[in-house]
Amino acid sequence: MADKAQFWNKIAPKYARDPIKDMESYEITLNKTRGYLRADHAVLEIGAGTGSTALLLAGECAHITATDLSEKMLEVGRERAWNDGVGNISFEVRSAEDMPEGPFDVVLAHNILHLVEDLPSVLARAHAVLKPGGVLVSKTFVKPMSGLHLEYRVMKLALPIMQFFGKAPFVAFHTRAAFEAAFADAGFEIVESGHFPVGQERLYTVARKT
Q1: Per-residue pLDDT tens for 68-114?
Q2: Helices (H), the chain
Q3: Which of 14, 66, 115, 129 sits 20 to 30 Å CA-CA off 5?
Q4: pLDDT value for 181
Q5: Is 149 contained in some domain?
Q6: What is the b/e burial string over 28-40, where b = at least 16 CB atoms within 10 angstroms of the residue's CB?
Q7: What confidence tens digit (pLDDT) does each residue in 105-116 have?
C-alpha cells in the first residue's frame, strides 16, 4: 500500500494541473450520475483523487466522503473545497478496499476499479457499506471488444516497461462480460451499463444492492 501511495503522491502536482482529456465524456458521466443522487443522500467516493468530481456533485447531495490512497491528492481537494466554499465534503486517506462503515446511499467509483488488484473484494466491501437499494456508480476501463484497438495495443506493450520503472500503476484488463459478472457475484443487480458516448473505452456501470 505504501508503494502505491508513493506513486500517486509523486504525480499529484501534475495530475492536479493537467486538464481533463475527454471533457465530453466527463460531462456525460457527471450528468448521468446526478440522476442517481438526491438532496438527502450520503455519498462515498473511492479513488477521489483531487476531488474534482466530488466538488462538482456536492451540491446534489447531503454529504460526500471522498477517499483516496494519496494524501497529496486529497490535500489539493481540501484546498479546492475551501477556496470554493464547499463544506459538505470530508476527505479521508483510505485505499479502495478500506471503505468507511457508512451506511451510504451511493458509492462512486470513477476511474478506479481497473486499478485495484482484487476487484471482488472491493465490490463486496461496497455492497457491505451501501444501504439496501443503494447504488454503486462506476466508470472503468475495460478491454476493447477488438484486439486491434490501437490505444489498447500500445498500452499493453508499454505498460510493463513503465511499471518496471515506477512510471505506471497496476492496471487490470477486464472484459466487459467479466466485469459485469463480478457485480452479480457481489450481490448487485446492474441497472445500466454502456459506453457513453459510443466508442468511449471506459464503461459506465450502475449497479443496485439487492
Answers
A1: 999 999 999 999 999 999 999 999 999 999 999 989 999 999 999 99
A2: 2-17, 23-34, 52-57, 71-84, 119-129, 150-164, 176-185
A3: 129
A4: 97
A5: no
A6: bbeebbeebbeee
A7: 999 999 999 999
C-alpha cell at 179: 466485469
Q: What is the CATH number of the domain that holds 191?
A: 3.40.50.150
HSE at residue 138, side-chain half, CA atoms within 13 A, is 30
Determine the Cα–Cα distance for residues 73 and 57; give it in Å rounded to an integer: 18
Domain housing 24: 2-141+175-209
147 belongs to a structural domain: no
Compute CA distances 141 → 144, 145, 162, 201, 205, whole Å: 9, 12, 18, 6, 11
Grid cell of 192 as nine digits: 445500466
Mean pLDDT to the nearest integer, 118-123? 97
Residue 155 resides in a domain: no
User: Grid coordinates standing for 63?
Assistant: 454529504
In a 3-state reduction of DSSP, which class is residue 68?
strand
Task: Give the pLDDT of residue 165.
Answer: 67
The kind and range of the H/E element at 206 are strand 202-209
Within a domain: 97: yes
pLDDT recorded at residue 149: 63
Q: What number is the average pLDDT over the span 190-197?
A: 92
Domain count, the chain: 1
- Residues 155, 183: Cα–Cα separation, whole Å: 26
Peptide bond connecting 197 to the previous residue in cis, omega within 30 degrees of 0: yes
